[in-house]
Each structure stands twice: as C-alpha cells, then as structure tokens.
Amino acid sequence: MATPFDRASSSIPVTVVTTLGAERYADPGATVLRLDPALHEHEPGSECVACAARGDIRAMLFDLLQASRQPGSNPVLSVVVDASRLDDPKPLIDRLERGVVPAFGLRDHTVARSFHLSRII
Fold this sequence. Notes:
Blueprint: E1 12-17, E2 31-34, H1 49-54, H2 57-68, E3 79-82, H3 90-96, H4 105-114, E4 115-120
Parallel strand pairs: 1-3, 1-4, 2-3
C-alpha cells in the first residue's frame, strides 16, 4: 500500500493506524510496532514517567533503527504503528510530525532525520 509520498523522501515511512487491524496496512517487510495504553488515568498534559515510557514512539523508532544496524539484521523499510489501543493518538502523531514537538537530544534528531510520518489511518 505504498504511496508516491513514501518515495519522495530518503527517510523511512511511518504509518499510524488508529483502527483495529494494523497488519493489513503493513507492506511486506514492514515492521509493526504496537503501543499499549497508559497504565492509569492522568490529568491532561501530565503523564507520569512510567506511562510516558510505554508510548515513547521516538525511543521505539530509535531502538528499531539501532537494532537494524547490527550485523545480520534486516533493514527497516517501513514502519506501521498500531495505535488502536490508545485513547488519544494525537500526542503520538505530534511527536512524529516535524516541528510540532521539539526534538531533544541526539536520539530525537536521529529519528527526525531517519523517519517521516507518511499516513494516518
């Protein structure tokens, strides 16, 4: 299910799926990341460290990229993020869109250079 926009960049396309059945949107060779909902309720804008770590998409993408660079590993061609279990996928999408949530540190800048948000389903 590639689009012309996926080839417009040298970075790896990321598709965020907010409905059930993320696998059907994954091209052959795509990596599927599943996000878990928060452990408990939070006030808007005040997520605890434990819950934030469960859904830190930048950390997950960085770890995926690092693992793919190991000898004998397969390259990452595309990523499908299954966000169907999240109550609100907007914060996740904001962290993938350029310029919405600032990049902090080498990890975030590496992810911003290496991946791009191609679709939201």
